Amino acid sequence: MPYKHLKKFIETGSVREAIKDTALARSLADTADSDLRFISNLQITPDSARKITANYYDILRSLIEAVAVLKGLKIYSHEGFTAFLRDEGRMKIAEKFDRFRRIRNGIEYFGNTVSIEKARQNEEDMKELIAIFRNMLSEELKKTL
Questions:
Q1: Exposed/middle/buried for residue 81 (C-beta within 10 Å: 0-12, 13-18, 19+)
Q2: In total, how many domains does the chain have?
């Protein structure tokens, strides 16, 4: 299935050019780190599996939003983050991120459940993406010095 390029999101206003904001990027990263410390200590149970999965996605989104802010973009659409990653040449990462976006949408908008086993796998996979996004953020922050 063809994907929308970032340019299309800019044309529709769901991504806008903005002033590069190092303070905002750092704040988003700090919040993501705090959230990660919190949910990493939670036990995955039948009742917590879906919320933990959704919260890991929120951490991913916050980190990639921080990278986008450092590149002078404000993204208002979750699909816009996938387009941003693709336009950055991060196709495999974009695919993984988009898979978690769809899982989170299913949880939030359609009442989908997540098994304990799937939540554990999602947690592991999303932690790998979190590390990649932190590296991307670190590289962008170096450019601001």
A1: buried
A2: 1
The span from the CA of 42 to the CA of 44, in Å, is 6
Assign residue 42 a region (left: φ > 0; alpha: ψ between -120 and 50; beta: otherwise): beta
For the chain, the first-to-last Cα distance in angstroms comes to: 40
Cut 0.85: pTM above it: yes
> Percentage of the chain surpassing pLDDT 70?
98
The answer as to whether 96 is a domain residue is yes
| CATH number of the domain enclosing 29 | 1.20.120.330
- The interaxial angle of helices 91-110 and 49-70, nearest 10 deg, is 130
In this predicted model, what pLDDT tens digit does every residue of 36-86 receive, in sequence order?
999 999 999 999 999 999 999 999 999 999 999 999 999 999 999 999 999
- Residue 118 structural domain: 6-143
pLDDT of residue 145: 81
Cα 73 from chain centre: 15
- Describe the chain by its helix, strand, coil percentages, rounded to 5: 75, 5, 25
